[in-house]
Amino acid sequence: MTVLSDSASRTPPLGVSSLNGKSGSGGGGALVRRLRTSAPVLPFLSYVILVLGVPTVAIINYAFRSNSGHFTWQNIHTILSGGQFRTGFETSLKLALVTAIIPGILGTFIAYAISTSSHAPFKRISAATSGVLAQFGGVNLAFMFIASFGFVGVATKWLNAIGVDPWSHGFDLYKFWGVAFVYMYFQIPLMVLIITPAFAGLHPAWREAAENLGASRWRYWRHVGIPVLTPAILGSMFLLFGSGFSAYATAEALTTGTISITPIQIGSILQGNVIAGENNIAYALAFAMIVILLITVVGYVLLRRRTSRWLR
Amino acid sequence: MALATDSLTTIGSDSQSLGGAPVVFDNLTRRFGATTALDRLSLDIAPGELVALLGPSGCGKTTALRVLAGFDRPDNGRVLVDGKDVSHVPAQRRDMGMVFQSYSLFPNMNARDNVAFGLQIRHQRASQRRAKASELLDLVGLADHVTKYPHQLSGGQQQRVALARALAIEPRVLLLDEPLSALDAKVRAELRDQIRALQQRLAITTVFVTHDQEEAMSMADRVCVMLQGRVEQVATPSVLYSQPATPFVGQFVGVSSRVAVTRHGDHVEVLGREVPIRGDLNAVPAGELEALLRPEDLNVVVNPSGLGVVTHRSFLGATTRIGVGIAGANLRVDVRSTHADDLELGTRVDVSVNARDVLVTTPRPTN
Questions:
Q1: Cβ atoms of residues A104 and A241 within 8 Å
Q2: Model's pTM, two decimal places?
Q3: pLDDT by residue (tens digit) across B106-130?
Q4: Backbone angles phi, psi at A262, to 5 degrees
């Protein structure tokens, strides 16, 4: 049997090392080539180091320091051992989970509807709207919801006029589910934005091949469509989780800091609003957030790698 | 790579042959808006026959295949398989195996699961379908790759898996939609031979869509040349080449040169010789005419006072193709390579016609 290989493409290009009679990727020539090809990304790399790398190192450093500057595990122990910080952490995780799973599912269905629509203007408008709404957070969003769904909001009044009063049925815009409701406003379009390319990567010929082999539409989705999309959907949910876990401004503006979630607790400590002189607890909380977000990003990257292999 | 046809034990029924069904395209018409993709297309395909649909892009060949597969519905006309009208039968109930241009293997399944997919849909037992899938992969020379995923296979290997997958359901009609066009030349030639050998071995009715005349001519029992949704000619490759029914077929299939001619009744004068006109004389257009001449219809000899000049030469192995500029025409003439040494560029030559008859057409419009 002929073994089909792309050995030709693996032949190292003629470079400094090969001219010197060396082989392989080692040697100064390879390093120079690598540096040369990396040059265009150096400004961005510098920016990332400055605004992400340096603060991260500083946070890690302070997270393990006492007020007197000595190394300690006490800060980590404090936030994990119970009390308000642990409650805040648990609430943040719960909020992130809720605002990852529900928008993840809804966003997937919306993306499916967009990708299967043959109406080009609908596709364009949906993509543009998702792009805008996914970025619409913070104080503006909080104000919009207060004005709409607050106790005397416009939408609340309309609902009251038709005999529906969400506030008397347990809804409270300024508590956990209210915040989650507001987060979904930008999490759903974010999901649509992230997952739509994955739907576009589903080759129509796969469906035709399945049909040709006798599969119904449902069996195509069960055996091919859903398994192929699952890593992309889960990966996107990881991103939503990270987004929901780290969001600060919207919750702060909406609840004026009354909801106990980690980003608000960090803000309160650093502003000296709660207990002055416990800044290192805030750094420990920030460190814990970094760990969670790191896990999220690794999960996303691993799932994305599999997806990109399938949906290329 | 040799096909492991000896290992074929469970494919097909008693005689290791799937047996093909006759296929009929009956007056098919398919329109997309203002475009007519199929224009009253009719074609009969015998059981076990391999027919290639050949034509330029947009001629309707892929539409015809998709209508046969059930992915598209004709506006008019019928598709008959084994005498039954399947025009309104959904694709999943047609029992046809199809190999796509883009392989279309399911990326979340390894080679064996891809091949076994159709059997799984048919509720075959897991052990049976694994055994059959492995056997088919062995048949296409991929016994060592059963657990590999599509992204771990080369293009040629993926297309072999796709072929095995299409055969696994024991279809009575095999549809090949430009299955070789995404492959490099060497793999294409190899796979072409393998598909043909397998098709003949299994005697399965096969419809093969291609725009590559070499592929069509080398694989098909008959070639159906299409243009603008219509059949121009259906014939064996040799007839198609030697007796093209229309100027389009003469131009599209094989190499031909055009030379201005003068009509004298049922003859034309070509390069100083009277040659009978081929085909229906009533269909010959009035006015200026050109003859289509194959490279082997012409002879060339060196003559220092000849009217032709060698302008080009291409070594093709046993023959060398000589380009000759003469009387405003560029003729292509095949000569034996052993006799081509004297025909250097710029050499003056005489060109004569040795064809029994010629196809004539109107001159190409000039810009």
A1: no
A2: 0.76
A3: 999 999 999 999 999 999 999 999 9
A4: -55, -45
User: Any chain A CB within 8 A of the CB of B151?
Assistant: yes
What is the domain partition of chain A in residue ranges? 83-307
Calpha distance A234→B265 (Å, rounded): 78
> Is B347 in the A-facing interface, judged by CB distances under 8 Å?
no
User: Is residue B158 within 8 Å of residue B194, measured between CB atoms?
Assistant: no
Q: Is A193 left (phi over 0), alpha (psi -120 to 50) or beta?
A: alpha
Q: Compute the average pLDDT of residues A257-276.
A: 81
Q: Is the ipTM of this complex over 0.85?
A: no
- A244, A182 Cβ separation under 8 angstroms: no
Predicted local confidence at residue B91, as pLDDT: 94
Which helix (H) or strand (E) segment holds residue B313: the answer is strand B308-315
CATH topology of domain A83-307: MetI-like fold (1.10.3720)
- Spatial CA neighbour of A175 closest among A265, A255, A89, A94: A255
Q: Are A167 and A151 in contact (CB under 8 A)?
A: yes
Q: How far apart are the first and last CA of chain A?
A: 28
**Which tens digits make up the pLDDT trace of B202-219?**
899 999 999 998 899 999
| Terminal-to-terminal C-alpha distance of chain B | 49
Percent of chain A past pLDDT 70, that is, above it, reads 89
Q: Which of residues 219-248 of A touch B (CB under 8 A)?
A: 219, 223-224, 227-228
Q: What count of Cα atoms within 13 Å lies in the side-chain half-sphere of residue B84? A: 6
Token pair 């990966």: residue: A235
